[in-house]
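Subject: complex prediction, re-run

Hi both,

The earlier run crashed halfway through, so I resubmitted it with identical inputs.
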Amino acid sequence: MSRLIDFRKLAYVARFELAEALRSRLVVVVLALYGAGAALGAYIFSAMLTTAENTARDALGSTFSAHGVPDDLVREHALPRAIAFFVDDAALQKELLDVEPLAIFYGFMALNLVAGIVLLTSGSAHANEIATGGTRFVLTRIDRLSWALGKLAGHAALLLVGLFVGALATAVVAWLGAGIDAASAVWLARASFRAWVYGVAYLGIFSCVALVVRSPSRTRSFSVALLFLLWIGRALCGSSLVAAQVPWITHLVWVFPAQYELALWSPRWLESLAAMGALLTIAAGAFALGYASFRRGDA
Amino acid sequence: MTVVRLVDVVKRFGRRRALDGLSLVVPRGACCAVIGPNGSGKTTLFAVLAGLLRPSSGSVELFGERPFDARRDAGRLGLMPQDAAPSAHATLEQSLRYYAALTGFGPADARREASQWLERVRLQDRARSRPLELSHGMRRRFSIAQAFLGSPELVLLDEPTAGLDPEIAAETRELLGQRRGSATLLVSSHQLSELEGLCDYAVFIDQGKLVRQGPMRELLQSDSRVRLKLTRAPDLERVRQRVGALALDWDAPTLDVRLRGDRAIDVANAELLRELLDQGVGVLELSTGQSLEASYLSTRRQS
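This time it finished cleanly. Structure:
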């Protein structure tokens, strides 16, 4: 492997990329998106949950005036129903019930927004440097593979930092409200890590586009289009109507990152590890595809 | 020993051939002028040599081996591209340290190398500036500094003095002159007088093809052309008898006498000057060869 990749130089590129994000204030945007977004979202979610509890208490209070109702009526009855609506897996349902709803909310938001945020902050990183000619200063000093992987690694690190800051902001909001227990804090960290793995799959896909088209504006356009195609494609491949007509198409569902969203949450380690492995394979496969074009092409 | 060898190299962009069967050889240690009109393929040639563009066909050899490979040859080739922007947010020093680290320097050496080159191109007081805060000339000097980081064996300089003010252009030429001999330099420029003073080898390319190449002395015909500016008209008949078979031209309005042919410089020293002195005709100026511009233009006309 070290014959193919110069890991020392790869680390220089990744570090410079991360430092560039800091210097360009991109990191501020990323952290604002993750941190403020997570904090605001968590606050709104908490407020809604409290309002729902109060409404339920008021409504039931008029009927059961003697002993009132438990504060966590909604949490004990409405939440399990809501979770069961989204999650079939009984073990996962049980685990989610033990977690602070705010943490679940954060995990859900992080997983669903990470692709868009990756597109916004990191999607055209390779294309930007190629288009400005910056590659002409570096590609006489480092091979193309180490350079491309170094940039990918730098942006993966940026994503990780952003997600953990988001989790921290959520934890602070929860702590300021009803408080947060250790289990929920750990769950937040796990949710961030899982969202990161999920985001890395999209980072690989967008890097592929950037390395193939090598123009920032075209990279953004193609990546947005691809994001929709992935969404539509997965819906089509998973549709029973389509499967009835073209049975083999159901196998294609495994190439879509969204297919692993639920498995990532699984309390069974093997299942969630397999999902992470599959997502990292998608990232690696997409990157390899993009690199194959970049390796042969002009820089 | 050759540093650069291209054989029948073609580079296509769609239907257009930027390099069209280009073959050339550059000897080690040469300071080679790469001359050609706009769009002749000079920048493409440099990008192909640096491994940034893949040739469509033909063979490229660097350092007597295979084409340039950044993994194997990192630090052996420096490139000053014509239009390229370094990182917009890093300072000059941070960028140079980064490039030095990628060249193979450790952290302390990278810092020292970056600092030395900033000083050599007189940008030490702008070490903490970002590229957007610099003038065009300063950015060109930064580009020169990064090309020479680590003292590479081969340096490709694409129009190094374009857009520089006369003082900085002269300093740049001096800097390149200092590096001559310690590295093989390929310099493209439209300032032919600048290349004539700097380079000892030249290649003329046009429409992606080699038109002519060789040592500067041969291209300028330094040995076979002599021009003397005289104080008054000589007795031409006697002068012609003295120089023998060599062609002699007289330009009365400018009082110039030109001698052309094999070993013209030897004949001028041994016979022509003696005859002129015998006739009491003074010599105001003596020059040999033709200008690079004249050589280039006549080559283009012939081709």
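Chain B touches chain A at residues 47, 50-54, 68-71, 74-75, 77-79, 81, 83-90, 94-95, 98-99, 101-103, 146 (CB under 8 Å).

- K.
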